[in-house]
Amino acid sequence: MLTLMTLGPAGSDCWLAAQRYNPAAEILTCRNLDDLFASFADSASELALVPVYNTREGAKRDARNAIVAAAGLYWVDNVVLPLHLSLFSLPGKPRPVSSAGRYAVIRC
């Protein structure tokens, strides 16, 4: 059975992407990218699924840097996982205006 390592916990976006890539794989999860890369380097899994897009800031930027710094890694494939996020505000607080000129959240 294929083992695939990604960020966790089970049910997270990364875990869902790993499941989409290979539903029959054993999915191993790590709490952070440092643990993921250390475990992967120790051959704890055959593949590692790592979030790499939106890499300007934060943990995904760190993933990109770790991938660039690692020797012997090969980019094998991509998994696209559509995400739907909602932006909320509290009553009486300003509502951000989107680039389209509409409110991000409109009370129904």
In short:
This protein is an alpha/beta fold and about 110 residues long. About 30% of the residues lie in helices and about 10% in strands. The protein has helices at about 15-20, 35-40, 60-70, and strands at about 5, 25-30, 45-50.
Number of helices: 3
Largest sheet entry: 3 strands, parallel
Fraction in beta strands: 5-15%
Number of strands: 3
Main β-sheet, spatial strand arrangement: 2-1-3
Descriptive overview:
With 108 residues, this protein is α/β, with parallel strands linked by helices. The chain has a domain at 3-69: Periplasmic binding protein-like II (D-Maltodextrin-Binding Protein, domain 2). Helix content is 28%, strand content 11%. It is built from three helices and three strands, in the order E-H-E-H-E-H. The chain has helices at residues 13-21, 33-41, 58-69; strands at residues 3-7, 26-30, 47-48. The longest helix is centred in the middle third of the chain and has 12 residues, at 58-69. The protein starts with a strand and ends in a 39-residue tail after the last helix. Residues 100-108 have low confidence and may be disordered.
Blueprint (SSEs and pairs):
Elements: E1 3-7, H1 13-21, E2 26-30, H2 33-41, E3 47-48, H3 58-69
Parallel strand pairs: 1-2, 1-3
